[in-house]
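note to self: dont lose this again. the chain is below, predicted strucutre after it. 453 aa total, dont forget to put it in the shared folder this time
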Amino acid sequence: MRWMSALHRVIAALALCAAVLVGLAAAPQASRVPWQPPLSGVPDLVGLYLTWSKDPTTTMTVNWVDLYPDSPSSLHWRRVGDSAWSVADASRVAVEPSSLQRRWVELAGLRPDTMYEFGIGPAPAAPADEKAAKAIESSTWRFRTMPAALTPTRPLRIVAGGDMMHTRAMVDAMNAQAAQIQPDFAILGGDLAYEDGVRGARVIDWLESWMRICVAEDRRLIPMVVGIGNHEVRGGYGGRIPADAPYFYGLFTLPEGRPHYALDFGRYLSVVMLDSGHTTEIGGAQAQWLESALAARTASQFLIACYHYPAYGTAKAPEGGLSIDNPRSVAIREAWVPHFERYGVTVALEHDHHNFKRTHRLRRHARDDDNGILYLGDGAWGVETRTVPSPEQGWWLAKASPTRPLWDIELRSDGTATMRAVADDGSTLDTVPLSSPRTRPDAQHQADRHQGQ
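---
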């Protein structure tokens, strides 16, 4: 029945071409960005990306996407420098409503801060000569596990942002900037491909851009920690899991299968991802979980919160009001911000409003330069920007402009950090040094909480 397999491949390839032509004809390819060639032996690969659902220091989930149910479903991998390969069988799921096929393998028991190389399919034979060795190299990619601890010579580098792809040219340009930073991983705060739960062609383009362009030196892939936004969901808000966000929940294996979760990197960092009402209510069970998660992580040196819709934004003001008067912003400030202030955070990463912004340090909805939280955003990795409030109106904003940024974050072992906003042309928009790893916990919030019990 080989002719049936070949026929299926022809049909799937024609469907892919049609989808790309219809959905992406108006989006030009960026011409000045690096472009990784496809893996030899797997030319039909649509996407290849790394995620975590468990300990980032000792695990890695390798995901790959193509169009064919009968494609190779195994992964070979080894520590760089070793000679023997290990082989693991992949899980597979059809990412409906498309014909995309996602496969993934979660590798466990890895060494912290160690480089590994991997390829798709059965392990190759030992190379007989230099030509064979180069052929193996051209068919493999690499990843690095996260360190067990930070040291004076080993900081952690993160790129962060959201609202990634109005056009392919825009996402390509910022992905290239992210790759030049050579980060350890990326935090992506939603609105990844702008597929709205239905447009598979956009998913294909977003995956391919990340696989081909957002790649560090020596073909090292950059892992991603992902959050959900309104453009992952049919209708944007109040969606059902997974029915109304099929691509998001089909492409990513999330911790505990939900969009609000925490990842712990040793004792030096916790990343807390939240769902700003897209498939989970802002208050209620999610807010209760957030308080428990923060209470359990008071010993984490750094703690970064990330979510899509901002508590302190730069756009979408209701009629007669300000951006911060939007009911969704008010709900976040009522349900989440008191917990941020009570337990202390390093920074809150916000998105959705398609601008560059840094707030003043804020506590209890007022400027507090000593103890307040910084809210960085505002989600413009690869999208058109919007008008920002004037300085007279936007009392909460230290800096804001209709500019596309990503945030380059460096965390150091002594508890200091640097947050740098980078434009898609590589220029620096802003630099913020942090002298302490987390804001001071708000003792009054603690007292208020106990009095209310």
